[in-house]
């Protein structure tokens, strides 16, 4: 993880930007701005969605903790059916594959609001560092609560959409705002990290001790999550184009925060009450599909649906065959349409 990738046909100046240390947000912003047109021109089904009529806007806003947060919106030409608030996964950003997902949702009539968490993508903060998962969730609550108050959105239904770690964030947002959301779409949610990815008990205890003194160090041994998450061979190559994603070993405090968050979420499944759509690949080696099944069975929501996809892995909307990606999207759009039909 973290190896430099050489892209054919680009200038030495651009390659230098891509090879820069991404710990600082300025380097991430510079790389994304210079590379975004190449990113969005790759031969991936997500970037073949018609988007000429979509209204897209990028913005930066300083939050209550003094951090500059990047956000982007995608709106259809006509009044949105509802607004989807996107929560991206670990190490990711809302500006690459998230861009394709948002365009797809907007193409079907949904407004989409997305943000990069502090320390990820184009938002300020040390790259890949989560000093507190609860604090990160508070940042999401603050940002999306402000967005929901805007005149163009305040009378529309609002849905959470969480991928992987974003699924855990969405559930925590729901916990903090139990009556504020019309539903949640959870794609391979991180309710539990797969056992093969988690360090052994002994190593975890050692890491806990070291994290007290070196919380930001990239020392947690793990498998290549990109390799585990993506099934389709061609789409494995595409992941390299996500140039501002965090690709190094997890930072010590980040890893402990994620482990603690999943333990907490496992104990909160019975308190989940909003309408739920849960989608998970049965062959997921990054997040545990059995806990998605437990969420479906144990949540107190009277309106819930679970799709477990045979032979599918973690990156359901980015890393599977085109046929599987379209199938998953179809299930998502059908569910959203059913829940906005009366709006």
From TrEMBL:
InterPro entries per UniProt: AB_hydrolase_1, AB_hydrolase_fold, Hydrolase_4, MAG_DAG_Lipase
Gene3D superfamilies linked: alpha/beta hydrolase
TM segments? none
Q: From which domain of life does this come?
A: Eukaryota
Query: What's a Pfam family in this record?
Result: Hydrolase_4
Residue ranges annotated for the Serine aminopeptidase S33 domain, each copy included: 79-320
Per the record, the coiled-coil ranges are none
PANTHER family (UniProt xref): PHOSPHOLIPASE-RELATED (PTHR11614)
Q: What protein name applies here?
A: Serine aminopeptidase S33 domain-containing protein
Q: Which organism is it from?
A: Solanum tuberosum
């Amino acid at each position: 993880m973290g190896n430099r990738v050489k892209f054919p046909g680009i200038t030495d100046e651009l390659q230098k930007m891509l090879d820069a240390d991404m710990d600082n947000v300025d380097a991430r912003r510079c790389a994304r701005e210079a590379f975004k047109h190449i990113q969005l021109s790759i031969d991936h089904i997500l970037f073949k969605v018609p988007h000429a009529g979509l209204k897209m806007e990028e913005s930066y806003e300083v939050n209550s903790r003094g951090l500059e947060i990047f956000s982007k919106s995608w709106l259809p030409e006509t009044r949105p059916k509802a607004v989807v608030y996107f929560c991206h996964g670990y190490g990711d950003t809302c500006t690459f594959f998230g861009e394709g997902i948002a365009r797809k949702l907007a193409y079907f009539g949904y407004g989409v609001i997305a943000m990069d968490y502090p320390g990820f993508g184009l938002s300020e903060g040390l790259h890949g560092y989560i000093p507190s998962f609860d604090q990160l969730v508070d940042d999401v609550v603050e940002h999306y609560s402000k967005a929901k108050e805007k005149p163009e959105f305040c009378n529309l239904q609002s849905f959470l959409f969480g991928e992987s770690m974003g699924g855990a964030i969405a559930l925590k947002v729901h916990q903090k705002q139990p009556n504020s959301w019309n539903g949640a779409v959870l794609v391979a949610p991180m309710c539990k990290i797969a056992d093969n990815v988690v360090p052994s008990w002994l190593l975890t205890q050692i890491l806990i001790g070291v994290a007290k003194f070196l919380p930001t160090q990239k020392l947690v041994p793990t498998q290549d999550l990109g390799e585990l998450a993506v099934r389709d061979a061609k789409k494995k190559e595409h992941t390299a184009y996500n140039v501002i994603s965090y690709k190094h070993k997890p930072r010590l405090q980040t890893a402990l925060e994620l482990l603690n968050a999943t333990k907490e979420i496992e104990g909160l499944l019975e308190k989940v009450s909003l309408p739920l759509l849960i989608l998970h690949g049965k062959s997921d080696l990054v997040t545990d599909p059995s806990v998605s099944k437990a969420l479906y069975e144990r949540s107190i929501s009277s309106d819930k649906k679970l799709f477990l996809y045979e032979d599918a892995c973690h990156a359901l909307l980015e890393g599977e065959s085109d046929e599987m990606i379209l199938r998953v999207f179809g299930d998502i759009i059908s569910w959203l349409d059913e829940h906005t039909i009366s709006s």
